[in-house]
Amino acid sequence: MLLALQSIRPFIANSILTRLNEGGPLFMYTTLLILIVIIILLIRGFLKPTARDKTITLVSSISLFVLVWGFLGQMLGLIGAFDAIEAAGDISPSVLAGGLKIAILSPLFGMIVFLIARIGIIILNLLKK
């Protein structure tokens, strides 16, 4: 069992790194960094009740930023893709589908981080007295 888990771990790590690079490193790694900041802020909010209101406000603002950041990455990626399609003239549907899949990665990751932040905010609000 342990051997099976050890053989899966590199596959999962490579898959995550591949997706981060496919979705546009600037937008994906920035979103990952923001996710880490949000997790740190939420932990601080759980451990330090006096800072909960400030933490909720800050995480709320950051979560909205990361959502918009993901969609900005998608728009810039689609503009670049459409420029390449226009220059090439005729492309196959599989190439178009691959490009659209890559364009969706950045906003998807932004939405996941947004949801994580919002769930944390809900929990912090429930813990407030």
TrEMBL record:
Q: How does it sit in the membrane?
A: Multi-pass membrane protein
Which Pfam families would you find in this protein's record?
Answer: MotA_ExbB
Q: Does the keyword RNA-binding apply?
A: no
Give the chief site where it resides: membrane
Q: Which domain of life is it from?
A: Bacteria
Q: Identify the keywords attached in UniProt to this record, alphabetized.
A: Cell membrane, Membrane, Protein transport, Transmembrane, Transmembrane helix, Transport
Cellular component terms, GO, for this chain's entry? plasma membrane
Residue span(s) of domain MotA/TolQ/ExbB proton channel: 54-118
The transmembrane segments are 26-47, 59-82, 102-127
In the UniProt record, does the keyword Cell membrane occur?
yes
Q: Where in the cell is it found?
A: Cell membrane; Membrane
Q: Which GO biological process categories is it annotated with?
A: protein transport
- What does the record list as coiled-coil region(s)? none
Q: Which family does it belong to?
A: Belongs to the exbB/tolQ family.
Name of the protein in its database record:
MotA/TolQ/ExbB proton channel family protein
Q: What is the lineage of its organism?
A: Bacteria, Pseudomonadati, Bacteroidota, Flavobacteriia, Flavobacteriales
